[in-house]
Amino acid sequence: MSSKKKDKPSKKIIIDGIGLSIAMIIAAVFLYLTPSYLGSEIVTIIISSILVSFGISGLGMSLTELNNGESIGIDRLGLGVAMLIIWGIVYYFSQYIWLNWALLIVLGIGLFGTATGITILFVNVLSSKSKREAAIKIPVALIQIATTIVALYEIFTKLKIFK
Fold it and tell me: Does some domain include residue 32?
């Protein structure tokens, strides 16, 4: 038996992933701010939500790879948010109670990923070796958490899940 070693992606691939993720997030924000751009507000919100889901997830995974594969929480936070956005879209359009039951697992995974990502961010900040390192990590963690909360609130408000 031979064990295969996981190849580390090159910096160029990681940088391309970050660039693509940021482009998706910017496109999602543009669509969100111009809801009639695609001809239908509902379609624009759905496409915007999908773009921001992929953008946040991709950014989290790319930043983890940039950190030598060591999770700093952003990857789980991004995947959790993506799952919550998918759940929110389906919940908004679903008229069937059985579908809500089936999507309960997606909601649970989304909440788990988001909570785990936030927890890892906090642990990462608290385990800083120096005050300077902590001073850098604290604003980054707070911005990530605030961005996550605002993005979810805005999407769920647009979908009228929150009033």
Answer: yes
> Which residue segment(s) compose the domain that 56 sits in?
11-158
- Residues, the chain, total? 163
**CA dihedral for 10, 147, 53, 78, sign (positive or negative):** positive
Q: What is the 3-state secondary structure (H, E, C) of the chain?
A: CCCCCCCCCCHHHHHHHHHHHHHHHHHHHHHHHCCCCCCCHHHHHHHHHHHHHHHHHHHHHHHHHHCCCCCCCHHHHHHHHHHHHHHHHHHHHCCCHHHHHHCHHHHHHHHHHHHHHHHHHHHHHHCCCCHHHHHHHHHHHHHHHHHHHHHHHHHHHHCCCCC
3 lies in some domain:
no
- Per the structure, the count of domains in the chain is 1
Its pTM surpasses 0.90: no
Report how far residue 45's alpha carbon sits from residue 39's, in angstroms, rounded to the nearest whole number. 11
Residue 5 counted as domain residue: no
For 49-85, the pLDDT digits (tens) are 888 878 877 887 787 777 666 667 777 887 888 888 8
Residue 163 counted as domain residue: no
